[in-house]
Specification:
Radius of gyration: 20 Å
Structural class: mainly alpha
Largest sheet: none
Number of strands: 0
Distance between the termini: 47 Å
CATH superfamily: ABC transporter involved in vitamin B12 uptake, BtuC
Helix content: over 70%
Number of helices: 15
């Protein structure tokens, strides 16, 4: 517990390990894009869709392994493909619960099929370890090259969210008015789901398919409780994600018995709980979607 006795020495020792530097590099970028896209996931009430994509990530990763393809190719490919499918089958490029539930059940069946195929072609121990890694993440096990690729993909995703943030915010608040003013609402909907798919693939490598929803939705939920200002909330969500990643990785390093996926989400959940307590004595700042209650100054906050 050197980190507690002498934090500076402990931090220096922690950063001397290559696996820790790789985890921090990839984890920071993944948490950043997760916080940014997660804010819109909560704002657009698409948390169930993100949950469905967590199971898609599991099925895609195992499908790639079952057929001898690179795991990340199956992970990203399946998440993006099914994200677009959800957008196409829904109204206004936004998936509804019926579509999500149908895809959800089908994907779970595919995941079971691919796991069976992979298990029969590999030894039981190897298949089991890989399955656990996909389900619960293995950020301490990524290589330097993987960390570099993951961080580049995540940063590009974050830049894309920032680039379309203003029109996406407008389209999320009032799609009818946004479309009347020339905003490509449907195209933004497709792009949003592609970004959610990429983020799901990234988050799976950090906290696993079963837990990625926490990294995506929890920071956004906490930020929306803490501030009603959209662009402030967007960056606050990103900050909560990154801080949760840093503290979570540090705790997991300090106590090897704690898996990093648990500590990362424990910190994020604790922040959300604090936000809930802080805002419990006053009415929650709700986003009046599809109504005229959002002021023009709120929608144009980022223009100044």
């Amino acid at each position: 517990m050197v980190l507690l006795v002498d934090p500076l020495t402990g931090l220096s020792h922690m950063l001397s390990h290559p696996f820790m530097r790789d985890a921090l590099l990839a984890g920071t970028a993944i948490a950043l894009v997760s916080g940014l896209i997660g804010y819109f996931v909560v704002l657009r009430s698409q948390v169930f869709a993100a949950d469905a994509l967590s199971h898609v990530a599991f099925a895609g990763a195992l499908g790639a392994l079952a057929f001898g393809i690179d795991l990340r190719a199956g992970l990203y490919g399946a998440c993006i493909l099914f994200a677009l499918l959800l957008a196409l089958l829904g109204r206004r490029a936004a998936a509804d619960d019926t579509v999500i539930g149908s895809v959800f059940a089908w994907v779970l069946g595919l995941g079971a099929l691919f796991l069976s195929i992979y298990s029969t072609n590999r030894s039981g121990g190897a298949a089991g370890n890989t399955g656990i890694s996909v389900l619960f993440g293995s950020i301490f096990g990524i290589t330097s090259s993987q960390a570099l690729v993951d961080s580049i993909v995540a940063l590009l995703g974050a830049l894309a969210v920032v680039a379309v943030g203003r029109p996406l915010l407008f389209a999320s608040f009032d799609p009818a008015v946004a479309q009347a003013r020339g905003v490509p609402v449907r195209l933004l909907g497709y792009l949003f789901f592609v970004l959610v798919g990429i983020t799901a693939g990234e988050a799976t490598q950090a906290v696993g398919a079963l837990l990625l929803l926490g990294l995506v939705a929890t920071p956004g939920g906490a930020a929306q409780r803490l501030t009603p200002r959209p662009f402030t909330g967007l960056w606050l969500s990103a900050a909560i994600g990154v801080v949760s990643m840093w503290i979570g990785l540090t705790l997991a390093y300090a106590d090897p018995q704690l898996p990093p996926s648990f500590t990362i989400l424990a910190v994020a959940t604790a922040i959300y709980f604090v936000a809930f307590l802080v805002t419990a004595d006053r009415s929650r700042a709700r986003w009046p979607r599809r109504s005229g209650l959002v002021t023009a100054s709120d929608a144009r906050e980022g223009e100044r």
